[in-house]
């Protein structure tokens, strides 16, 4: 009984780990394809410099040699070091490039006043202001990423038919040999630094997933009958559970797997010791 529960729990953790890794890879591809980091940075700079209508200040900043050098020609940078931002702003103010934008000047005037005319202190204040703005931007980007990962998780769960509820039920009622393999795989993933979890891992463990010609969500139930609808609702709940779990991230699930394996190993030690004593006696 305990082996069934443990193997079912571990199998779900491994499944969530695999799907979260797939989601991370897909999300990074989407982020690169649509230049999400660069766009988020651009939107943040527009708000910081009160240049939503792009009257020139943001474009001037991007055209500055210190900033322009951070990205390939024709592309916007996805990251700007705070010291380079402060130097670029200071240079623009010194040369009068930003003096024409009156609605931005109060921000820098306040920082200059706080610095007491000290250029080093002014640059430090600009860096602090930039850091605070980037921290907020990081929160926006993280929320946007979580929505994308959740969507990708649902697509992957449905596309590969990775139903958490179906998997847990199947593994819990599987033969002891399969359940033992699941536990052993968990130990392997935790103990080996180069161990990787992917869809092949699920196939090797005989965890049920995927669309096969013999598998039907509703079995033999006729379309749009109560049994058919109930089966699809349960299946969608399983896919949604997989997607929600995957959105927590691979680091989260690997950490859970490590704790679970460690707890299980710690729990096994007294039994092993007693068995050893009995054998010795």
List the helices and strands and how they pair.
Elements: H1 2-33, H2 36-48, H3 57-63, H4 65-68, H5 82-94, H6 105-115, H7 119-159, H8 164-172, H9 176-191, H10 199-204, H11 226-246, H12 250-280
What can you tell me about this protein's structure?
It is a single chain. The chain has 281 residues and is an all-alpha fold. It has two domains: 2-29 and 166-280, no CATH class; 30-157, no CATH class. The protein is 73% helix and 0% strand. It has twelve helices and no strands. Mean pLDDT is 87; it is low at 99-104 and 269-281.
Residue stretches low in confidence (pLDDT < 50, at least 5 long) are 99-104, 269-281
What is the succession of H and E elements?
Answer: HHHHHHHHHHHH
- Terminal residue distance: 29 Å
Quaternary structure state of the chains depicted: single chain
* Approximate shape: elongated
Q: Please, how many helices? A: 12
- Rg from C-alpha positions? 27 Å
Strand content: under 5%
Largest sheet report: none
Number of domains: 2
- Total strands: the figure is 0
Mean of residue pLDDT values: 87
The helix/strand class is mainly alpha
Helix content percent band:
over 70%
Q: What key phrases describe this protein's structure?
A:
mainly alpha, 2 domains, 12 helices, disordered C terminus
Summary?
By secondary structure, the chain is an all-alpha fold. 73% of the residues lie in helices and 0% in strands. It has twelve helices and no strands.
């Amino acid at each position: 009984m305990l082996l069934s529960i443990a193997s079912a729990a571990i199998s779900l953790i491994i499944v969530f780990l695999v799907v979260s890794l797939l989601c991370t890879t897909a999300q990074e591809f989407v982020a690169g394809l649509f230049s999400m980091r660069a766009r988020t940075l651009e939107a943040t700079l527009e708000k910081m410099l009160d240049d939503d209508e792009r009257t020139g200040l943001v474009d001037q900043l991007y055209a500055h040699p210190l900033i322009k050098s951070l990205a390939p020609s024709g592309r916007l940078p996805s990251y700007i070091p705070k010291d380079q931002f402060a130097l670029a702003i200071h240079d623009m103010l010194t040369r009068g490039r930003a003096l024409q934008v009156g609605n931005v000047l109060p921000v820098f005037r306040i920082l200059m006043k706080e610095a007491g005319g000290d250029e080093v202190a002014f640059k430090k204040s600009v860096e602090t202001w930039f850091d605070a703005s980037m921290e907020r931007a990081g929160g926006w980007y993280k929320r946007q990423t979580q929505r994308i990962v959740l969507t990708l998780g649902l697509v992957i769960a449905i596309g590969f038919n990775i139903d958490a509820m179906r998997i847990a039920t199947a593994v819990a009622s599987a033969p002891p040999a399969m359940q033992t393999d699941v536990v052993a795989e968990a130990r392997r993933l935790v103990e080996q630094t180069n161990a990787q979890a992917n869809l092949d891992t699920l196939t090797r463990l005989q965890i049920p997933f995927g669309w096969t010609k013999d598998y039907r969500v509703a079995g033999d139930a006729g379309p749009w009958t109560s049994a058919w609808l109930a089966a699809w609702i349960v299946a969608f709940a399983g896919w949604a559970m997989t997607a929600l779990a995957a959105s927590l991230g691979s680091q989260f699930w690997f950490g859970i797997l490590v704790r679970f394996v460690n707890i299980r190993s710690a729990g096994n030690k007294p039994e092993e010791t007693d068995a050893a004593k009995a054998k010795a006696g």
